[in-house]
Amino acid sequence: MTARTASLWQFRQPSVIPGFGLALGVTLSWLILIILIPLSGLAWRSSALGWSTFWALATDQRTINALRISFGTAFAAALINVVFGVILAWVLVRYRFPGKRIIDAMVDLPFALPTAVAGIALTTLYAPNGWIGSLLSPLGIKIAFTPIGIVFALVFVGLPFVVRTVQPIMEEIDKEVEEAAATLGANRFQTISRVLLPGLAPAVLTGFALAFARGVGEYGSVIFIAGNLPYVSEIAPLLIVIRLEEFNYPAATAIAAVMLIISFAMLLIINMIQAWSRRRYGYGA
Amino acid sequence: MEVRVQNIRKEFSRFPALNDVSLDIRSGELIALLGPSGSGKTTLLRLIAGLESPTEGTVYFGNEDASRKTVQERNIGFVFQHYALFRHMTVLDNVSFGLTIRPSGRRPAKAEIRKRALELLDLVQLSGLEKRYPAQLSGGQRQRVALARAMAVEPNVLLLDEPFGALDAQVRKELRRWLREIHDRTGHTTVFVTHDQDEALELADRVVVMSKGKIEQIGTPDEIYDTPNSPFVFGFIGQSNILPVRVENGQLWIKDHSIGVSAQGEADGPAQLYFRPHDIELLEGNGGCIAGIVTVTRRVAGTRHVELDIGGANSRVEIELPPEKVTADHSRVAFRPTRWKLFRD
Fold first, then answer.
1. Distance from CA of A177 to the nearest CA of B (A)
2. Which chain A residues are Cβ-neighbours of B97 within 8 angstroms?
3. Residue B4 half-sphere exposure, CB side, CA atoms within 13 Å?
4. Cβ contacts of B133 on chain A, cutoff 8 Å
5. Which of the residues A5, A238, A243, B334 could staple to A248 if both were Cys, CB 3.0 to 4.6 A apart?
6. Can you tell me the ipTM of this complex?
7. Residue A280 to residue B88, Cβ atoms within 8 A
8. pLDDT 10s digits, A132-181
């Protein structure tokens, strides 16, 4: 009987790797302290609002527009980053050229640079009287102070996420797989489009998710270039700050809660797609 | 299809990997390239495939010069040691790949491609696994998928680079027999690279023994094993003993006594005597034999391996005896090689 209860309650499997209990304990405490407590505070504050108040605040037109702009621009920026990030990673992995190390190091700059600096620099360039903006404005193209400007800023901050997740997987691509495709008659284009890129899909998806998540939460670089016109180019994080400055805590909480729910749902879906593709292709199995 | 390699030379950054190699492969033949690592056997295979280009020399497919053709144009089937399957594709998609990427003019209809892929999977005994992904297969199964994929394009020649190298002994043996069967049934001209002599001797119609970028000997497994034409081949294939001897008046001498082996027609002088551990006869008495003291005996499967110390430098000899012949350590054993070969420096 004792053996049976033991096996029923045995949560951990006997393992040669020691320290499971300790490691899990530390992990959970850390997660609770850093992520769970602040977020549950948010959930608790918004639940105190009551459903009808919350709904009214969340469906306010300005809030909805801000959320749409935040998620829309983050999505667009992540898509652009996937395309150019994969090309950039490909160049860095596949070719040897002078200055390669410098370019490789430059990719990380958006990680390190204060995002406000990036925002100000981009605004200076793309404002109607800036270097690039002054060339585009006669053509009727406005970048700064529109959602397009927001996308530009988010492309800047999100690029390293895609490059740095795709690059190591790309480095692992077996030369033999390419050779196998060639012996079967595949030309270069077919090898890349049908063999190499699909194999990278899980990594690309991870990079996309990271760049997207970063874009949704980005504040510093965006507020300078966005122009922050309500209903047009005002992002949700900024609206939260505006509500806070108005001491309108319920509204700020409601927007934050909606952002949290949408972000969590999207990341969960992406994670599930990843788990599925990983299982199929045998990555990490 | 017949494949001819003519005076091929290949250098990797000034280091010659292949040096003036010529080889005729007959249509429908199963041929093994055998050699230690660094002998150039894989380079030769990759040159035939077009995955490398020769520094000098020509490769002919039939009467056509294939040297200037790209890999894609050569229409070969290549099987890699580590399978190189496309892991995001199902088994069926892997096998169909070579057909689906053809330009529309030469591409069979979808149903036809599927039918052919399924037939091939049946041939490699993987029916029912077509929806699996490579990660869900065992090593032996993956290699069979790789073979089916290579055969799907109806290649001029099938090239296999250490196809069983990554598999464990049991599976290796099984696949070896099975590859022979497939070859006999389909009749593809097949070249495979191996460093495993058992594999080469058991499987191939002809064996090409290579060393240091050169072909040492080409022949049937019997020829290679029974009449090796160089010390390298003798030493590399099977077990062998090497003894320094002297030829005098058509007799072989070790130091001051004759070993009772006549070598008519051999010029007088020093030589190296090569013989296999099992090509011996046991003798009684003292004259006309090689005698030694037993140092170690080992039972290996159906035979008993006996190591003898015959005195003097370079004097360890291993012979094979029937298992019922028990020899005590330090006892004296006398024998004479029945089949042997002399090489001179």
1. 5
2. 181, 184, 186, 194
3. 8
4. 280-282
5. A243
6. 0.81
7. yes
8. 888 888 888 888 888 999 999 999 999 999 999 999 989 888 888 999 99
